[in-house]
Design a protein that fits this description.
Number of strands: 8
Shape: elongated
Number of helices: 16
Strand content: 5-15%
Number of domains: 2
Largest sheet: 5 strands, antiparallel
Strand order of the largest sheet: 1-3-4-5-6
Radius of gyration: 23 Å
Order of helices and strands: HHHHHEHHHEEEEEEHHHHHHEHH
Length: 413
């Protein structure tokens, strides 16, 4: 997985209509050239690359570090290919806010138009749903998802039918407390046999390092990262707990609650007397009001008063999920349920998850001296060359073409 961090500040303004129209026009030409040169699946693979996506947004007139680049760029691309989806072999669903909730219906509509198999449509809807669930529940980094765009490429097998050969997701979350945004990229390519034009057996792993890349403002400490390979044991025990009986699971939850209750009183007394040690601060699982108090990576919630959590755990133990992905896919299972199971697995059974932020590399800062990681110069150069070629081949007026090329050349690494 290529990982990345870029500086995004939340933008609250609106894109001027005249600018959006120009972005749509240029975006349409670039998509046409790229699909013609490399194919629809390759275009989606580039959309799933944080560096390439960011560069495309900049060519179409956005600032390098604007969070609005994500929402406006996907909206512009969706509008740019409107009416040409079947010819290009690409369709885009979802978007910002309430539009993201329409993604399953839009996928279904495209399936009917392209005569896609019902099972394949269900698989696409499932992929869209799971990408959103993973980034809100398994990567608990303080960013709330508010934008979800689903891209898919299709391959015609005959005049009457087509097959899906790849999909990509670009979704973004916001952190209102520090006014920053974080973007998550996904990609999956399906293998199609040459002889029968059928998709071979293929299953995307949604729960272990599934991302094509993650772009954010800063590297954060203490992120509950359950997609990391280091969290595998924690997930295994969580799944076993979910597959046990409700009474067995609730005994562990009650044990967790009593632990919190006793520890809360002990630490509170030490804090008031000024005798709390660094070890106390590191080990505590409580979010106290003291501004200098270091909390456990998982923000503590009052599990003692959560009747909703108990109802969800009852449903989970009734369904007895066969694997962790099945557990996550159960309706009602969200961040709080995942945290509760993860805490039981860690505290009672000693299987700690990863608290390492899955976003690592900085586009906007820290590259020249290889801190935190070296600049991938080859990727940047390749991205710029491909986009430069696409802009030069585009059928737009020379003035707009020259401006786009200047923006591209201004990318500094």
């Amino acid at each position: 997985m290529r990982r990345g961090i870029a500086t995004f500040t939340l933008d609250y303004g609106k894109c001027p209509p005249w600018l959006f129209r120009r972005m749509v026009a240029l975006g349409r030409e670039i998509v046409r050239v790229l699909v013609d040169e490399y194919g629809a699946a390759e275009f989606l693979k580039r959309i799933a690359d944080p560096v390439w996506f960011q560069s495309l947004g900049m060519v179409l007139a956005f600032d390098w570090n604007a969070s609005g680049l994500t929402t406006i760029l996907t909206a512009a691309l969706k509008e740019a290919i409107r009416g040409e989806e079947e010819n290009l072999g690409v369709f885009i669903c979802g978007g910002k806010g309430r539009t993201s909730l329409k993604t399953p219906d839009e996928i279904l509509n495209w399936g009917e138009r392209l005569n896609l198999e019902e099972k394949k449509l269900k698989d696409l809807s499932y992929s869209s749903k799971m990408a959103a669930k993973v980034d809100s529940s398994l990567v608990q980094d303080g960013y709330q998802i508010y934008h979800h765009a689903f891209f898919s490429s299709v391959k015609k097998t005959s005049r009457a039918s087509s097959l899906i050969d790849s999909w990509a997701v670009v979704q973004q979350g916001m952190n209102t407390s520090n006014a920053t945004a974080r973007r998550y990229h996904w990609y999956d390519e399906l293998e199609i046999t040459n002889n029968k034009s059928q998709i071979t057996n293929h299953k995307k792993d949604f729960v272990e390092e599934p991302h094509a890349g993650i772009a954010s403002q800063v590297f954060k400490k203490n992120v509950l990262n359950l997609v990391d390979k280091k969290s595998r044991k924690n997930k295994e025990i969580s799944r076993e707990l979910a597959a046990s009986s409700y009474n067995t699971l609730m005994k562990d939850i009650q044990l967790l609650r009593s632990h919190f209750s006793r520890y809360s009183k002990m630490i509170s007394l030490r804090l008031r007397s000024g005798q709390a040690s660094k070890k106390d601060e590191q080990l505590t699982f409580l979010k106290l009001n003291d501004p200098h108090f270091t909390t456990h990576p998982v923000v503590y919630e009052d599990f003692t008063k959560s009747k909703y959590l108990e109802r969800i755990l009852q449903r989970v133990t009734y369904e007895k999920p066969e694997d962790y992905e099945s557990l996550l896919s159960i309706e009602g299972v969200g961040p709080k349920t995942i945290r509760a199971l993860s805490l039981v697995s860690e505290i009672i059974y000693g299987a700690g998850p990863s608290y390492e932020d899955p976003a690592r590399y900085s586009f906007a800062h820290g590259g020249k001296d290889a801190i935190p990681y070296s600049v991938d110069v080859k990727t940047y150069d390749n991205t710029i060359n491909i986009l430069e070629k696409a802009v030069k081949k585009s059928k737009i007026n020379p003035f707009d073409k020259e401006k786009a090329l200047r923006r591209l050349q201004s990318i500094n690494i």
